[in-house]
Amino acid sequence: MAATLTERVNDRIHARVLSYALSRFHVVRKAHRFVEGQRQNLGLNAKAQLQPFPTTIFPDLSIDDCLDNLRQDGLSLGLRLPAHVVTEICDFAADTLCLNNGDGQSFMAQDVQNGRLPDGQLAARGSVVDPMDCPAVDALVRDPVLLEIAHRYLGYRTKGPGPRLYWFFHSDLPRDERPGQSCHYHYDVDGYGFLTIFFYLSQTDRNSGAHVVMTGTHKRKPLRMLLTPTVGRSDEEILDRFGSDREVVIEGPAGYGFLEDTSCYHKALAPRDSTRLMLQVAYR
Predict the structure, then answer these.
(1) Structural domain of residue 240, as residue ranges?
(2) I want to staple 192 with a disulfide (CB 3.0 to 4.6 A). Which of 32, 121, 200, 234 is the partner?
């Protein structure tokens, strides 16, 4: 007898709950990658795969070096976008509506002053609508070198869930009053396999929303951190547990990029002096 709609919905909810609970563990993610790779090799994985773009904009990027860094540290630095790609994406972001992380209200980025819209509504982050409508973003998501890194890191060919292009608006608001800016240490649980690539589209330093990563924590967390909430860890707790030598504050010019296994503890510094524009591409 065919399952009812309610039963199918419940099954999906239960699967997501199970995934959220189990995929925190590095050994589970590693086993999943192996199984998915074998299923794909045997033609049993029916997931649609991204079709690579014909050419890459990273011809000199060493795939092996990126993979070595990711496997050891959960982080690989040093990607660079050509200036014309940065300009195209920035122009698209400036001319496209955003959605407010707080209430879903639509607005243009230039309407935000000191983290607020003209009506006084908080707007700490704005997600640019439909970034795949930008040809440069489409080419990046399907870049053959990035797809090959994702394939070899995850162990299977992947379908990206779609990129996210978003503004982190500068303001003098306290850290706890910045919805969506992820200013406290956390780690992501995005299923059993995931790799994220970030690109700064504006000059970014520790005063304009720099991303911070605690390297190596994608596979080395104490059990109590795996069994308790993934978000909201204090700086003091993370630094005391893992040591300041593992903390990397990522600063760079417009076009600077990096790859991260976001099961590492990470956060964003609060942008106080200038607004940050960032592209995030997640492969699963």
Answers:
(1) 5-283
(2) 32
